Amino acid sequence: MTISTDFLVSKSDLNQTRLAETDLGELVEGEILLEIEKFALTANNITYAVVGEQMAYWNFFPTEGGWGRIPVWGFATVAASRNPDIAEGERVYGYLPMSSHLVVQPGKVTDGAFLDMAAHRQPMNRVYNNYRRLAADPAHNPDLEEYRALFEPLFMTSFLIEAFTRRQDYFGAKSLLMTSASSKTGMALAQVAKARSPEIERIGLTSAGNVEFVEGLGLYDRVVAYDAVGDLDAATPSVVVDFAGNGQTLSAIHNHFAGNLKYSCLVGATHWDARGLADDIAGPAPILFFAPDHVVAMTDELGPDGFAAEVGKAWAGFIGDAKGWVDVIRREGGDAVGETYATLLSGKASPRDGFILSL
Prior knowledge:
Oligomer: single chain
Number of helices: 7
Strand content: 25-35%
Number of domains: 2
Distance between the termini: 18 Å
């Protein structure tokens, strides 16, 4: 019998949290018990909570009574196994709850990975059900584990956005506008675009207090505070990738560029409490970007090996830069997890903070 410590969030009020203990019972044939070592918590995970009902993020690690477990990315050790293909003591990387333990049912096992075949996870995209077996994972570097947890999911989203928009010739745009330019996903897109689409002008939009930090990254051609959007040349054909989820800011961009805004891409919701978007905004209708669908599409197009090679090449160039963007902050225990979550939810975390947590 294993008791898991779980960090729970109220689905109806994201400010309400509590710790709970769950008896996971005995493993049945085919299952393994993961002891969760550490996970990253970023604004991206806040987005999972904000759109938890709409995008079914609460369904990955279900609980009862109106509470949910926010999915995170991190590392775990196989603490017990009743699966002949998975040995105790093995380490994995993948999609985890904010908990101390998780029971999964490995299937489609290869040397480098397996899927959780638990029935409740099958309706969700397979990207989220995949666990990398670190002993045979070419992307694994023990010295960069914290950076992988912090950046790999965000990098993948940004890699896919860049690939998609580049293949569309940026919809005829000359400038790429990125809100929440201080966010880790924003940084990632700027770096990937700089490396793979140097012809597109990269404009980072951020709060006035973060302008100096964002300029210091050297990732953007220009950095503009939100209240200075009106100073941008509205005649320049542009696309916007909105990581912030702030309806007022996005409306201002749409109304300023109007017909010269060629595409509007919705990704995240770092400003989770200001998501309302005016009904009468100018320009194109914003379109939600769901990264897992693009993973499947590119994999089908390039084949698994071709997709992995393209991602791997971009990741190798990315991670060397990313190490210099954040300070890793390691915190342990339920109180620390709660305090960190509250800081991120309120938007008060420094853009240099890279939180690695454990319960």
